[in-house]
Amino acid sequence: MSKTKDTFSLQFDTTWQYDAAPESASHIRLQKGYDLFIDNKFVPPADGKYFNTVNPSTGKKIAEIARASQADVDLAVQSARKALGPWQALSGASRGKYLFRIARLIQEREREFSVIESMDGGKPIRESKTIDVPLASAHFFYYAGWADKLEYAFPGRNPKPVGVAAQIIPWNFPLLMAAWKIAPALATGNTVVLKPAETTPLTALKLAEIIRDAGLPAGVVNILTGAGDTGAMMVEHPDIDKIAFTGSTEVGKLIQKRLAGTHKKLTLELGGKGANIILEDAAIDQAVEGIINGIYFNQGHVCCAGSRLLVQESVADLVIRKLKDRMETLIVGDPLDKNTDIGAINSAAQLKSIKKYLKKGLAEGTELYQSSCELPSGSGYWCRPSLFTNVAQSNTIVQEEIFGPVLTLQTFRTLEEALEKANNTFYGLSAGVWTDKGSKIFKMTSGLKAGIVWANTYNRFDPTSPFGGYKESGIGREGGLHGLASYIKFEDR
Amino acid sequence: MNITRSLSPVIDQVGVEERIARLQTRSIKTASKVFALKLALSMIDLTTLSGDDTPGKVRQLCAKARHLHNRLPGLPQVAAVCVYAPFVGIAKQQLAGSDIKVASVATAFPSGQSTLQVKLDETRFAVGEGADEVDMVISRGEFLRGNYHYVFDEIQSIKEACGTAHLKVILETGELSTLDNIRLASDIAMHAGADFIKTSTGKIQPAATLPVTLVMLEAIRDFYYATGRKIGMKPAGGISNAKLALQYLVVLRETLGEQWLTKDYFRFGASSLANDLLMQIVKQETGVYQSMDYFSKD
C-alpha cells in the first residue's frame, strides 16, 4: 500500500485549460477616499492625514483611507462612552433587533462585500463569497439571538456589560473578524471602537455604512482606520474598559504588558502553528484534501492553519506523492476569478516575510517543493503553494508562524510521538487528526494542547463554536456561549 | 491473489462530497467550454439497451452516430455505440469504415444473475460478432455476501473470453450501497483485468453520480501509481445534460490529468447527452439556442 513508483506521473498542465471567469465588479461603488466613522457619521481625521489601501493583485491604490490620530481616538472613545448608558438601558430584545438588522443587511449585500473583500485583501472570490461574508452575517444572527437570553446563559450571575471595548482586528478575514468582535460586544450591551487592519479597511467601512443604515444609536459602534500607532492609542486610552485583539503574538505580548496594572479586561487571539496529523488508517485521498484546505485556504493567512503536517511513516511516501499531485491542480491567480484557488498575498510586506522563510528553510537544509503553476504577470504579490519535506522539529520553519501558503512535513511512528511533536510548540491554537478509528480520535484530541481540534476535517468554522488558543496563541474565547463571557462582568448576587 | 477488504483504503464520504461540491464551482467559459463540449461528445458511448430494441432501432442509432449533426461540420464522432449482443452484427455492418467502436453488454446484463458458463458463452458470442468492447456486470450478490474471490475470478474469466476486445466492468454502484464497497469493487475489477471500470447499467437508481465517479477515479489513480497501468472510466446513466457532463470532465481533469482526457480512457454511457452537447456547441458558435427540433432524435 505504501510503496508507490514515482516513475508513473500524472500531468496536470492539460491541453484543456479553464478560461478566465471573473466575477463582475461593475456593481461596486467605491469612493476615492474614506473618513473615520465616529458617532454614526463619517468625519475627516483631525490632522487631515490619509494613507492608501491597495489591491494586492495589482499593487495599485484602491482608495485613500483616513489615519486616526490621538484626537480622533479621544473623540471615538468619548462617543462610545456617551452611548454606553442608553445602550445598556435598552432591553436585550431591542439590542437583538439591531443585530438581526445588521445580519440581514450584510446578507442582502453579500455580492458587494465579497467582491470588495477580494479586491482589498487578495483572497479568492470563491472563499469570500462562500465563507467570509456568509459567516459574518451568521455571527450577527447568532449573537442577536443571545441578546435577550443573557440571564439564561449565565443563570444567577447577573451579567453586566464590561463597558467601552477597543477592538483591533487583522487583515486575513477583515469583515468576518469585525463581525466576531462587534456582534458579541453589542449583544451583551457594550459599545465599541473598532480598528480594521491598515491593509484591509474597506469592508469594515462598508460595514459602518450598514451600521448607520440600520439605525444603530450613534456612538455604539465607531470605526477608526489607521496603522499600529492608532491601535496603540486605543490600547493606552484610559477610558477603555476592554481590549480585544486579534493578530500577531508579538503585538499581543506588547498589549498585555501595557495593560499590566490597569482595570482593562483583555482577550487575545494570536498566532498558531497548527499540527495536522495524518494517521495510517485515515482515508488518504480525503485527508489530502484536508491538508490542502488546512494550509492553502486564504493563502495560508490563517492563524489556525494546519501549517505543520505530521504523517505516519508507513503512509508518508503515498501522502507526499498525492499531495504534490494535488498541489499541481491548484490555480493561483486573480482573486476575482471564480476558478482561483489561491489569490494574492495580502501585502508586499507579507510576501517579503514569506520569502524570507522560504530562504531560511532551504538554508537549513530542507527540501522545497513548489507547484509548477504559472503566476500572474504584473505587479501583484504572489506565492506558489509550497511544501517543505525532510524537516525536523528544530527547523525555524517548523517553529515559527509563516502565515503564508507554506507547509512543512514531518513524519512520526507512533501516536505518542505525534502528540509529542504536535504539542512541542509555544503555540496552541489548532490541530487536526485524520483517522478512520473513533478510539484514536479520542486518544489524540484529548492529548493535544490546542484550543480547536478538528477530526477528519479542517478549517471549519461556525458561530456556535468557541475559538481560541492555549499557551501563546491567546487568552479567552470568541464564538459560542464562551464568546459572550469575554464581554461580560459578573455581579454575582 | 488473496482478496479481503484490506485490499482497498477506507473512503470518507463527507470528504468526497465536499471535494465534489468544490469542483462543481469551477466555471467553464468561452473557448474552454467549446473545447470541453467537443471532448465530451467524442467520449460518448451512444446507447440503446431496451427490451424493445430491434434491428431497425439499432440501425437508426448507428446512423445518428455517423451523422451527429450534419449542419455543423468539423464535429468529433462519438466513441462507440453500445447495444445488446444480438445487435452487434448489425451495428458492425452499419458502422463499417468508421472509427466508431461497437460495444456489447454481456454477462446476463443488467442483473448478472446467471451461471458463469452462460456469461462466458454470451461474451464469446458478442466478440465473435465483432464487438470491439464488452460491458460486463459484476455479480453484486456475491460481492455483498463477501465472496470477493468469486467476483474476481468471474471478471478474470470474462476477460480471457474477451480476447482482444476491451473489457468494461460495470460495478452497478447503486446496488453497492457504500463508497467503501465501490472502492473495493473498483480495485477487484482492475486487479482482475478490467480495461475500464463503469458505474452503472442505467437500469438501477442511483446510476452514475459525481461522488461515486471521484472514488472510482481515485482508485484508478492509485492503481496507476502502483502498476503504471492506465484504466479507463465510464460513468453511465443519468448524465443527460452538457453542464453535468462538463462537471464530470472537471473531476476527471483534476484527478487524473491530461492522459485521461481522451476517449481511450474516459467514456460517457448516455443516450440523450449527445443532443444537449450539440445544442450547446451550436449556441457557442451562433450565440443563440436552437429548438431541439433542429437536432435529430436518433
Topology:
The complex is a heterodimer of chains A (493) and B (298).
Chain A: E1 33-34, E2 36-38, E3 41-43, E4 50-55, E5 60-66, H1 70-89, H2 92-108, H3 110-121, H4 125-146, H5 150-153, E6 159-161, E7 164-168, H6 174-187, E8 191-195, H7 202-213, E9 221-223, H8 228-236, E10 242-246, H9 249-259, E11 265-269, E12 275-278, H10 284-296, E13 308-312, H11 313-328, H12 348-363, E14 367-370, E15 386-389, H13 396-399, E16 406-412, H14 415-423, E17 430-434, H15 438-447, E18 452-455, E19 474-475, H16 480-485, E20 488-490
Parallel strand pairs in A: 1-5, 7-8, 7-10, 8-9, 10-11, 12-13, 12-17, 13-16, 15-16, 17-18
Antiparallel strand pairs in A: 2-3, 4-5, 6-20, 11-19, 14-15
Helix pairs in contact in A: 2-4, 3-4, 4-6, 10-11
Chain B: H1 13-23, H2 30-42, E1 44-47, H3 55-66, E2 80-84, H4 88-94, E3 101-105, H5 116-128, E4 133-137, H6 140-144, H7 148-162, E5 166-170, H8 179-191, E6 196-198, H9 210-227, E7 232-234, H10 242-256, E8 268-270, H11 273-286
Parallel strand pairs in B: 1-2, 1-8, 2-3, 3-4, 4-5, 5-6, 6-7
Helix pairs in contact in B: 1-9, 2-10, 2-11, 5-7, 7-8, 8-9, 9-10
Write out key terms for the chains shown.
A: 493 residues; alpha/beta; Aldehyde Dehydrogenase, Chain A, domain 2; 16 helices; 17% strand; B: 298 residues; TIM Barrel; globular
